[in-house]
């Protein structure tokens, strides 16, 4: 396992990003940047990458398996001035587009599952997870975390909600698994996507990102089970994603619902 080339990453990415650091091991890159953001001293577009995470956390406090050298584990602190709080949820969708920009470049068949998963391969295993967390601070701040499986995780990894099994770029025939190269490609794609999103005030449609997201999102058109905050469950058909990144679901009685946050399980495609 070759360590990531931090000097190369800084040489090519500091400019679009304010700062970039690579650490050997940490509990969670998201937790580290959340703590740093609260001090007010960490600038917009600060990147932290870890070779290994020992306490990575996803949605609903689920742990993310982050073994040393098997993936790309990074977080970015963003201070998107001019983006209202209600639009911040769409940032995870922007990151999903950046990850699928990467998979397309690598020759990997991948699609998005609303709101924060990237699925790959004919069996649609989970290849990446995204977590955007707002930070309590004087100015708007968000920590955006991305965990990407590059090499097989090995036996013993539990499937996600709905039996979603993990997969990796290597298993799906990616043209390279060099983690430094992948970090460069992913962060460059995220830079382009996030600048458009920020300039449009967090509106996916105004940024020209909504139609692309709809085209890449396999949740739309699926019969779904949505696990909502408070342990409520919604069954229905996912019909669309709106400009603020919310999922539109029509339940079994024909009543429309707007879902801001929730875990989605794909049940089957609707004819």
From TrEMBL:
Q: Which GO terms describe its cellular component?
A: cytoplasm
Enzyme Commission designation: 6.3.4.15
* Keyword Ligase carried by entry: yes
InterPro entries, sorted: aa-tRNA-synth_II/BPL/LPL, Biotin_CoA_COase_ligase, BPL_C, BPL_LPL_catalytic, Transcriptional_repressor_C
One term of GO molecular function: biotin--[biotin carboxyl-carrier protein] ligase activity
Q: Which domain of life is it from?
A: Bacteria
Keyword Iron carried by entry:
no
Q: Which Pfam families match?
A: BPL_C, BPL_LplA_LipB
What keywords does the record list, in alphabetical order?
A: ATP-binding, Biotin, Ligase, Nucleotide-binding
EC class? ligase
SUPFAM superfamilies recorded: C-terminal domain of transcriptional repressors, Class II aaRS and biotin synthetases
Task: State the PROSITE patterns in the record.
Answer: BPL_LPL_CATALYTIC
Instruction: List each copy of the BPL/LPL catalytic domain by range.
Output: 19-198
The name of this protein is biotin--[biotin carboxyl-carrier protein] ligase
Source species: Amycolatopsis alkalitolerans
């Amino acid at each position: 396992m070759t360590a990531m080339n931090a000097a190369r990453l800084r040489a090519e990415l500091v400019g679009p990003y304010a700062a970039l650091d690579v650490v050997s091991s940490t509990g969670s890159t998201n937790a580290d940047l959340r703590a740093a953001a609260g001090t007010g001293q960490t600038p917009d577009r600060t990147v932290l990458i870890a070779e290994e995470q020992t306490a990575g956390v996803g949605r609903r406090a689920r742990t993310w398996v982050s073994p040393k050298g098997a993936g790309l584990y990074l977080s970015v602190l963003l201070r998107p001035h001019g983006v209202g709080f209600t639009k911040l949820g769409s940032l995870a969708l922007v990151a999903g587009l950046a990850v699928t920009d990467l998979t397309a470049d690598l020759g990997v068949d991948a699609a998005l599952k609303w709101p924060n998963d990237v699925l790959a391969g004919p069996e649609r295993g989970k290849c990446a997870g995204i977590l955007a967390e707002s930070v309590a601070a004087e100015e708007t701040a968000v920590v955006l975390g991305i965990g990407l499986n590059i090499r097989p995780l090995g036996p013993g990894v539990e499937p996600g909600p709905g039996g979603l099994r993990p997969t990796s770029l290597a298993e799906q025939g990616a043209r390279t698994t060099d983690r430094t190269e992948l970090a460069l490609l992913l962060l460059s794609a995220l830079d382009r996507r996030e600048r458009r999103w920020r300039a449009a005030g967090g509106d996916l449609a105004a940024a020209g990102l909504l139609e692309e997201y709809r085209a890449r999102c396999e949740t739309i058109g699926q019969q779904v089970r949505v696990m909502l905050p408070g342990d409520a469950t919604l069954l229905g058909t996912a019909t669309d994603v709106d400009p603020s990144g919310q999922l539109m679901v029509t339940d079994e009685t024909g009543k429309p619902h707007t879902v801001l946050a929730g875990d989605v399980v794909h049940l089957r495609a609707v004819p």
